[in-house]
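queue> pop job 88
queue> type: inverse folding (structure -> sequence)
queue> payload:
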């Protein structure tokens, strides 16, 4: 099995990050030219919601459906965890409001 784990931080104000998550279906596709489609089948990203992503990963067309397994949000923090139906991909979107630096941390973990 091959496991790819990567974490990136995107500098942005916490307010922008909250707006990004509030419009996730639309913003995911705008975020990268490699993001082709995003469908929130339940219309939201609450725990238990089904989601489909289509994107280019390492040159391959990656079309995956899965479930949000965690969704925590308050005025200073959000954490959304996605697990693919085949349990080969786990993606965590996390943002924290900190006094000197706001950033979203994105940790995709793909297994094959």
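queue> result:
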């Amino acid at each position: 099995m091959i496991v790819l784990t990567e974490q990136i931080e995107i500098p942005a104000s916490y307010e922008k990050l909250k707006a990004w998550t509030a419009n996730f279906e639309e913003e995911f596709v705008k975020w990268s030219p490699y993001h082709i489609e995003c469908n929130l089948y339940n219309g939201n990203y609450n725990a238990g919601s089904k989601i489909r992503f289509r994107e280019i990963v390492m040159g391959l067309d990656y079309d995956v459906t899965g479930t949000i397994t965690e969704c925590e949000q308050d005025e200073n923090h959000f954490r959304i965890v996605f697990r693919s139906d085949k349990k080969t991909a786990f993606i965590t979107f996390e943002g924290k409001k900190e006094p000197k630096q706001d950033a979203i941390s994105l940790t995709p973990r793909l297994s094959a």
